[in-house]
Write a structure and sequence with these properties.
Beta-galactosidase, Chain A, domain 5, alpha+beta, 14 helices, 627 residues, 32% strand
Length: 627
């Protein structure tokens, strides 16, 4: 799927399954403290090397890479014209990885393994390791155990325990070398397992391909460039699926983050990943406290310092239930949903009804700043969440208390939407917040959220984002470049965010400007060809254009799916009413679309031809209209 030849030292890739992941650079390098093999927030492998005839299989002789999200094959050109391929992959479920050496003729190799069993929050540690030999090699410490098994090829092990330290990307790390594993054969297969031994099932990779390709092939258009971008996005989302939900990003956001997840869940809903969505809602609902949805969950850890996770939960849940027809989940979570609205109500200012936050902690997505007390995007989310709640209640046979609260929510959303622009819109732009009753006229990317959510139609705001005031070669900066606080490497006062680029693209589509919508869509998608291959990252420095955040970020990838389906195509599904509508603003970019839509327990094919402005759906009984 992605074939690269030199130079590719700046590129990296991920392999994953629901219980583990592997991170490495495309030239075989392990270049920072996050590269290696991980499971459940614990690192196990720092790096590994192969040596053949005194020559390492490394950056100096790796001349090509084939990567398709499920496996990576590094090709090495050795002295004397010998060529050896190094293949790595992870199975469907179990926390282990497989490393293979492939050659046309018999080879003798030495495998050197560096073990570093530590938590994600640790750096240098002084734990000692014990090596146990048997049918497989076990290396363990008080933090965990790594098992090494040679599944194919002849081997012998010489124990020479060494403790060492190094400084990948300038950060000191400790690791343990148990010894040398001598190997021989035309095909050598090594299994590295976290915690305990797991069997390697026959045709394991083939079964994994079948499952992933079904999701990736749900969207097909007559634009190969668009198909490739969407296929990459779907595969990158799959890399982030861990156990019950999707983590926010790899390698360092290994937690479930509420705001990241619920900005992204509509994309997973549209891709038919209903079980994963259902599990996500139940997971966060169970962890909520008095209606407040957690900021993140990681094992037993829970953080509640988010004001936006709760409205995003309601918005995403309404989208899921409407699309899937899963009213059983809506009924099951109705108590939590009611508490969520009551939580938001408890944060409303009694004078104007807008939500207050950041009194003691930074609660908005710009969590490096304290934005006391009424951020513009939070109020847009509040209005959207109240509307979503009223819609959710209409899907079920609700009790009196829910019905009464739904009437209040609908009325309150209407009232707030009428006063929103009066409070926040000034001098042709949206104030970033209301503080002590006065608008803070700082010009930030957050002004796009009311447009993205359809809370406002003040499209004149877009002019600033289309100009050099905000725009860089990587996209829209988080704060105006004319602001004295602008710093290109500042997390929230300078950097370009994938989320901000998505907001801008969506706002342009809604404003009826598809050329600009596609421009920023493609700018967002372009990162999949850089940095972590096939993945969209978190943020970038707008001056150096270097990625400065997480290489694979959930909302960056998920937003590509949403931008095409919800904004460019204008897809809206109501499985309960058996209706599908399209409001396309595709421009000249694409004219034919084929969608595999999952609606409840059934699946159908939607075909759309923009030249004829006609759509047909394969399942009988559904009303399809093009608006």
């Amino acid at each position: 799927m992605i074939s690269k030849t030199r130079p590719f030292g700046a590129n990296s890739y991920f392999l994953s399954n629901p219980r583990s992941f592997f991170f490495r650079f495309a030239d075989t390098g392990f270049k920072n403290k996050w590269t290696g093999f991980w499971s459940a927030g614990t690192k196990f492998v720092e790096f590994f090397d192969f040596r053949i005839g005194g020559e390492f299989l490394g950056e100096q002789n790796c001349d090509s890479l084939y990567y398709d999200f499920l496996k990576a094959i590094h090709s090495h050109a050795l002295a004397g014209g010998q060529r050896v391929n190094q293949k790595v992959w992870l199975p469907r479920q179990e926390p282990f990885m497989v490393v293979e050496l492939l050659s046309k003729k018999e080879i003798e190799a030495v495998f050197e393994l560096a073990v570093n069993i530590r938590s994600a929050s640790e750096n240098v540690h002084g734990r000692e390791y014990v090596v146990k030999k048997g049918r497989r090699l076990a290396i363990e410490s008080s933090a965990g155990k790594l098992l090494v098994s040679v599944l194919k090829g002849k081997y012998s092990f010489e124990e020479t325990c060494q403790y060492k330290r190094h400084f990948p990307s300038g950060e000191e790390q400790s690791y343990f070398l148990p010894g040398s594993l001598s190997l021989s054969g035309k095909r050598i297969v090594i299994q590295l397992s976290a915690g305990k031994s797991f069997p390697l099932r026959k045709n394991e990779l083939l079964h994994k391909y079948k499952r992933v390709s079904k999701t990736a092939s749900r969207i097909v258009t007559d634009s190969q460039e668009l198909n490739r971008a969407l296929e990459f996005a779907v595969n990158a989302i799959e890399l982030l699926r861990f156990r019950k939900s999707f983590v926010a990003g790899l390698p360092w956001f290994q937690q479930y983050w509420g705001r990241d997840l619920f900005w992204s869940i509509p994309a997973m809903t549209e891709l038919g990943l209903f079980e994963e969505c259902r599990n996500s809602f139940k997971l966060f609902a169970a962890a909520s406290v008095n209606g407040q949805i957690p900021n993140y969950l990681f094992g037993a850890e829970r953080s509640l310092d988010s004001i936006d996770a709760t409205p995003l939960f309601l918005i995403a849940l309404e989208h899921y239930v409407r699309h899937s027809g899963d009213t059983a989940l809506a009924r099951e979570l109705s108590g939590t949903v009611l508490k969520c609205v009551e939580f938001l109500e408890s944060r409303q200012d009694e004078n104007d009804g807008f939500v207050c936050h950041d009194s003691s902690a930074s609660e908005t997505w710009m969590d490096s700043l304290n934005r006391h007390e009424k951020a513009v995007e939070v109020q847009a989310l509040l209005i959207s969440a109240l509307r979503a709640f009223a819609s959710l209640v209409s899907f079920i046979d609700a009790g009196r208390k829910l019905r009464e609260k739904a009437v209040w929510a609908e009325t309150e959303a209407l009232r707030l939407s009428k006063t929103f622009e009066n409070r926040f819109f000034c001098d042709g732009f949206f104030a970033d917040r209301i503080c002590d009753g006065n608008p803070d006229k700082t010009r930030r990317v957050n002004a796009l959220v009311p447009l993205f959510l359809g809370v406002s139609e003040k499209s004149e705001v877009l002019g600033a984002f289309e100009s050099d005031e905000f725009l860089s070669a990587k996209g829209v900066c988080s704060i105006s470049r004319l602001d004295s606080r602008f710093s290109p490497d500042s997390y929230h006062e300078g950097r370009v965010w994938s989320l901000g680029n998505a907001w801008l693209s969506g706002a342009e589509f809604l404003a009826g400007k598809p050329e600009l919508g596609w421009r920023f869509f493609n700018l967002l998608a372009s990162d999949s060809r850089e940095d972590a291959l096939g993945c969209i990252g978190e943020c970038w420095n707008p001056v150096t254009l270097k990625q400065t955040g997480c290489p694979n970020q959930l909302w960056g990838n998920a937003m590509l799916v949403r931008l095409f389906l919800e904004f460019a195509l204008g897809l809206r599904v109501n499985a309960l009413a058996k209706s599908i509508s399209l409001k396309p603003v595709l421009g000249s970019h694409v004219s034919r679309v084929k969608l595999g839509l999952r609606l409840g327990s059934r699946e159908g094919i939607l075909l759309f031809d923009s030249k004829k402005q006609k759509a047909v759906f394969s399942l009988p009984g559904y009303r399809v209209e093009v608006l």
